[in-house]
Structure formats: C-alpha cells, structure tokens
Amino acid sequence: MSDVQSHLRSLERSRRSRTDPDRPRTFSLRGREWDLLDDVFAPIHSPSTEIALEFLGLDEIGAQQPSSLLEIGCGTGVIAVSAALAGCRTVASDINENAVRNTRLNADRHGVGDRLTAVHSDLFDAFDDGARFDRIFWSSNYVLAPEDFVHRSVHERSYVDPAYRAHRRYLAEAPGHLTEGGAVLLHFCERGNLARLSQIAEECGRELRVLRSRTVLEGEDRIEHHLLEVRPLDG
Asked: Which H helix or E strand runs over 206?
C-alpha cells in the first residue's frame, strides 16, 4: 500500500479538518458563498468537491443535465445545490445529520429549496423500491480501512470505508434505483484501491468504466481522480 493510500494518513486529514481552529462558518467556491456546519466534510480542505463539479459538468454554464439526480454523501450540498441550480430535480442524502442540515441551509441560501430534497439516509436505506433517478452520484470515502476499523466520529466516515463495505452496497444497490437509460457514477481516486474496488464490482455483477480523469496536486502529492460509471457486467 502506498503512503497516499494509508487510512491512518486519511484519518489524520479528517482530524485536522474537523478541529482546525480557523475552520470558517462560510466559504467561497466557484463564485458562490456556502454555509459550513461542524462535523461536515469541508470542501476548502480537499479539492474533491471542485473536481466532482467539473466531472459532472456543473461548472459549465448551459451544460446539459439529466432531469433528476440522487447524490449520496451530500456533505455541504455544493454538488446537489449546483445541480438544482442547473435545473435538476435533486435529492441529496447523507448518513451525517449535520450534513443534511447543511445541505438544506445551502439550498435555502441559493433559492432552490423548492426543487432539492435533503434526506438522512445510510446509502439507500431511506428510499423505497420505486425511487428512480436519471443519475446517481457518490463522491465516495475512497480510502480503504481495515475490516475491523470502527469510526470514532461521523466525520471520519467521509474519509475511510472499512473493507469497502459501503462501496459494495453502492455497487450492488444503486442500479436498482435508476430510470431506464440512467447512469450510476462514482468519484474515486488513487487514495483508494481501484483494483480491490473492481474486484468487488465483479462480485456484484458490475464493471467499472472510467469516463473522465484528472490529476491534481494535493499538498506534496499528485493524485489522480476518476469519474467511474457502474455498469452491468457484460452489459
């Protein structure tokens, strides 16, 4: 395992972000102001949110968007709110109740509370079998932690996934909530173990297709990010 893939290193990144004495109550991103609550993943401490906006075309004025989006792990709501501003009927979910409140705050701040619903959910637990979306997206907690690891805070859930249990559920369950012709997307990066994820995908009857990639400098590390599409195996 490389140093950038170390779950201990990612837990330290989580601790620093969560306890930063200069952690703001609001922040600027892509020309807009956003609220930031305690214990919510902070886009100012990681480039992943901005990269996700680019991957989804949400940084482009007039870019075509699907009619509906389900975002898993919405955090502050930047992606979900941006999708709603682009015209999507958007549902945003998170296992972190503060993140759900944070997303609602930012939906109200940007005037899209009428077309964005924020839901407290562990992946798809809060959704019935009939819930369908044109696009399902998760910018995941891509760092692999040991099977016996136990999160000490809900904030750590944004950074590491023990034995990729959450990823396995996403790969298995997300396609069941798609409309015909819809797409399941996953933002992953080389801080995670793509070989292990691909193996789990195959075990779930899925395959992963790289749609877009981007390499960014994170501190002293050059990290490659990927937008993956989850497809039926041999589909």
From this structure: strand 206-218
Model confidence pTM above 0.85? yes
Average pLDDT over residues 80-85: 97
Give 129-154 pLDDT, tens digit per residue: 999 999 999 999 999 999 999 999 99
Cα separation, 179 vs 194, whole angstroms = 27
CATH number of the domain to which 125 belongs = 3.40.50.150
> How far is the C-alpha of 230 from the C-alpha of 235, rounded, in Å?
10
Q: Which domain holds residue 106?
A: 3-232
At 135, which helix (H) or strand (E)? Answer: strand 133-139
Q: Which tokens is 93 given?
A: 């979910």
| Calpha distance 118→107 (Å, rounded) | 9
Dist. CA 74–CA 113, nearest whole Å: 15
Q: How many domains does the chain have?
A: 1
